[in-house]
Structure formats: structure tokens, C-alpha cells
Write a structure and sequence with these properties.
about 5% helix, 8 strands, mainly beta, Elongation Factor Tu (Ef-tu), domain 3, about 140 residues
């Protein structure tokens, strides 16, 4: 079963407890606080500029197959980054600021405080396009 294969490895910590403009959340620093038993798995992570964070939309209650995209056009939910997804899974490519013991500091994450972290992977795709290499602050 799928539930036996997925486990929470950490939790998101930031100042956002309620949904707001994702660009605002991405412009602020977040911390990924890993469970102690996964600390050894962070070895070497600091060598990467960008990482992908897989997490749960833990506050999302609704599920929809259609949603509005960034331009306000109704489309299939899988063609958007909306949170009302059937599996409530979010993925963000973020800029790694640092790793200290079991705390990972990032910018670019649009998860709320308390979101369960399911996985972390280094991301090489941001190196391919220069215009994506810097995450812009929110104004």
C-alpha cells in the first residue's frame, strides 16, 4: 500500500499559518526541520544551490479537478499549481541557503508553517536556465 511507503521526514517552519499570495511566502526564508533519525541523510546536501522539496498541503480540505491558473483561466487542476489537488502533494524547487545539523534554510518555498516534509532532492534543472537561477523577492 502507498501509505506504507510514504513517511514524514520533517516539518516546515516559517511565519505563514494561513494561505496568502504564494509569491509572498516564496520571498521569505523557511526552515525545514528534519526528524533526528534522518539527519545523516543530509550529508552533502549543502553542496547544492537548489533543492526540490516535496510536502503536503496539510490545511487543504477541498479537492477539485478544475481550478484557475496564474492567468485566472479555468483549467484542469493538473495544469495548475493550486493546492486543491486530489493527493494534496506540493513540490517546490527552492534556493538552499544553508544546512545546520538537522535544519535546512531555504528561500522560494510556498508551503505553510507546519506542512509535513515528505522528501528532499537536489535539483539540477535550475542550472540549465540562467533566468531561473535567482528567486525574486516579493514586493
Amino acid at each position: 500500500m502507498i501509505q506504507d511507503k510514504i513517511q514524514q521526514i520533517g516539518v516546515v517552519r516559517n511565519d505563514f499559518t494561513e494561505p496568502v499570495d504564494p509569491a509572498m511566502i516564496r520571498s521569505r526564508e523557511s526552515k525545514l526541520v528534519m526528524k533526528e533519525k534522518f539527519r545523516e541523510g543530509l550529508k552533502g546536501l549543502e553542496k547544492h544551490r537548489f533543492i526540490e522539496v516535496v510536502y503536503l498541503f496539510h490545511q487543504e480540505k477541498e479537492t477539485a479537478l478544475t481550478a484557475q491558473n496564474l492567468h485566472g483561466v479555468s483549467t484542469g487542476v493538473f495544469a495548475t499549481r493550486q493546492t486543491c489537488r486530489p493527493s494534496k502533494i506540493g513540490i517546490s524547487t527552492v534556493h538552499l541557503l544553508g544546512v545546520d545539523k538537522r535544519v535546512i534554510r531555504v528561500i522560494g518555498l510556498d508551503a505553510l508553517n507546519g506542512s509535513p516534509v515528505l522528501d528532499i532532492k537536489p535539483s539540477e534543472r535550475f542550472y540549465e536556465r540562467e533566468e531561473l537561477s535567482v528567486i525574486q523577492p516579493y514586493y
